[in-house]
User: Fold this.
Amino acid sequence: MRLITSYFIGLIFGIGISISGMANPAKVLNFFDIAGTWDPSLIFVMGGAVAVAFIGYRIVFLRKTPVFDAGFQLPTNTRLDVRLIAGSAVFGIGWGISGFCPGGALPALGTGRIEVLIFVAALIAGILAARGLIAFGGARLLSGKT
Amino acid sequence: MGATGILAGLLSTSPFHDSGWRLAILLGMISGPLAVLAISGQMPLIQVPVSTPMLVVGGFIVGIGVTYSSGCTSGHGVCGVARLSRRSIVATAVFMIATGLTVYAVRHLWGA
Assistant:
């Protein structure tokens, strides 16, 4: 039951991303190109998504526990650290270069387009490389060599 | 949790017991464009005005960034902002500005 629900959650997300144009790099890049071929329409996608999620969270958190789990799992970190801010800036640079973000590219895999596959392969390589860097840095810290 | 968290969890080396629902969500996401095709008769439009080397470079940079920042447009931008998370609001502001500046640099300074 949990798996079926998860599938449909992904499906709804994938349909929304597909219809809205968030999976289309040309549209995404035009959204950010205020000085050029600006297409502001995606602000309604993000604004709409936040508004719906905001109301949804209020309704969900009226419950003491989720339907399929013993408790809600929410991020507990509240620190505004360098890692968060630098990581976000780096993500923005990559998004600006490629026009794809993870939430747009994963559903776009369904179109079977080779460009999407190339982006997702590079994305996965980047995630694994960053993990390696973080693990290496952590090991160095533990060994006392900073 | 957004697309980054779902994908990153699947890439974990430890045999995660909760990879089932991640895979189910991912399959659902991938079915999205096919559902649109089935309903409307047209595949969602994907136009890529970016060269293959730049796609690889961009994808790799996105992967590094979202791993350090623990989230992307869906995780921080939608879920986090909707929960009024301070971290997510800051992250979203930073990546929106960084993306805008990058697009400006690529399109208007390099003249690509």
About this structure: The first helix of chain A runs from residue 2 to 20.
